[in-house]
Amino acid sequence: MPSSAAAPQQSVTVIGLGPMGQAMAAAYLDRGYDVTLWNRTPSRADALVQRGAILAESVEHALLANELVVLSLTDFDAMYAILGSAKSAIAGRTLVNLSSDTPEKARAGARWVTDLGGTHLTGGVLCPPPLIGTPDTSTFYSGPREAYDTHRAALEVITGKSDYRGEDQGLAALMYQLNMAVFWPAMIAFWQTAAIAGAHGLTAQEIAPYVTENFAGMGHFVDFYASRIDAGNHAGDVDRTAMGLASMEHVVHTASDAGVDTAFPEAVHDIFRRVVDAGHGADSFSRAVELMSRPAA
């Protein structure tokens, strides 16, 4: 007769219940996992406990509850501060650290976990909390391939896709920070636009469709310039830095005339100016990559 034994219950511990950690725990509950929680402010677990999650009485109990432990913390220093009192409970656990930090801190944190007998996977989530648990989102991972393969199904509860970057623990952190280097300035550019528009009586909602269209077109520019940058081709056949400098002067003056803060456009203007001052005014503004590849003088 076929076996009627039920499949073993899947389980996970989530440590850190900010908006992202709460969304991850909720996603696991949605998929039928047994979920154990720990947070420095216990009340943040209340809604999840009402749904069936278990709030551990200590971080040590949270670690011991399950082999798979997801960390959603501010940074790696928070990991040391929180888990430092429960080092003995790390042995035999797989810690998936989805906290933001530098590649070097990710490597150091992984060594710390490994020295304590645990396994560490570095991760970088590429979506906001409301999109956790949806199929078209993605997370970078790096660390031991065996651990990634073992827990891949559980990792893809958090985001529907996962992008394994290799054994180097710092690679997922690097890829995440590269994405943040694009995301945050792009959003600040929107805030700047909204400030200037608001000074002229336009609402953010009125300009939003034009900003979205602008962002949508950026893929063409990225694809066009990427191959030229890799080839070291900064010819001014399509654009010239001197023209970009003039354009940014107009942006700075428009912001100034509107009576709003000009720090952000001035910072961009300064990059164009430095490229021109270096003698590359007739070259493409992609020449800025070379300028930005070394510390500012």
Structure description:
- The chain is of the alpha/beta class and 297 residues long.
- It has 2 domains: 158 residues, Rossmann fold, CATH 3.40.50; 118 residues, N-(1-d-carboxylethyl)-l-norvaline Dehydrogenase, domain 2 (Orthogonal Bundle), CATH 1.10.1040.10.
- It is built from 12 helices and 8 strands.
- Strands 3-2-1-4-5-6-7-8 form an 8-stranded mixed beta sheet, with helices on both faces.
- Helix 2 links the parallel strand 2 and strand 3.
- It is elongated and about 65 Å long.
- This is 6-phosphogluconate dehydrogenase.
- Pfam families: NAD_binding_2, RedAm-like_C.
Supply the key terms:
8-stranded mixed beta sheet; alpha/beta; 297 residues; elongated; Rossmann fold; N-(1-d-carboxylethyl)-l-norvaline Dehydrogenase, domain 2
Task: Give me a quick take on this structure.
The protein is α/β, with parallel strands linked by helices and 297 residues long. The protein has helices spanning 19-30, 46-50, 59-65, 76-83, 103-115, 145-158, 170-199, 204-216, 218-230, 241-258, 263-280, 288-292; strands at residues 11-15, 34-38, 54-55, 68-71, 94-97, 119-125, 138-142, 161-164. Residues 12-161 form the 6-phosphogluconate dehydrogenase NADP-binding domain.
